[in-house]
Write a structure and sequence with these properties.
Length: about 110
């Protein structure tokens, strides 16, 4: 949820291995989203994916809250070798986390 008269500063992720999917649920007038040099208007019930490494920002210039469902997905545009590297890296991070988990702690 983005409060009325609020802007999300321009930001990027650290990798292009994930897509951030935005699904517009409640969108009053005067709300927008900018990715790179392209500004888009929200359309309720419509979604799009944004590669994490692109610069993005959002804005709600209205007097009402804007509600967008945001979730991550794998980037299907990765080459097979890139997908393999992501799999190896993910497994390594998981193994590191398991090896360094404090004893007696679940989860």
């Amino acid at each position: 949820m983005l409060a009325p008269k609020t802007r999300i500063p321009a930001h990027t992720g650290v990798t292009n291995t994930r897509l951030i999917v935005h699904m517009a649920l409640v969108v009053p007038p005067s709300c927008g989203f900018r990715v790179g040099a392209e500004t888009r208007e929200w359309r309720e019930g419509r979604a799009w994916g944004v590669r994490r490494h692109l610069r993005a920002r959002g804005m709600n210039e209205s007097d009402e809250p804007r509600i967008v469902l945001i979730f991550e997905s794998g980037n299907s545009f990765l080459a097979p070798a890139e997908r393999d590297m992501v799999g190896v890296l993910t497994a390594g991070v998981h193994e590191y986390g398991e090896a360094n988990r404090p004893s007696g702690r679940e989860g």
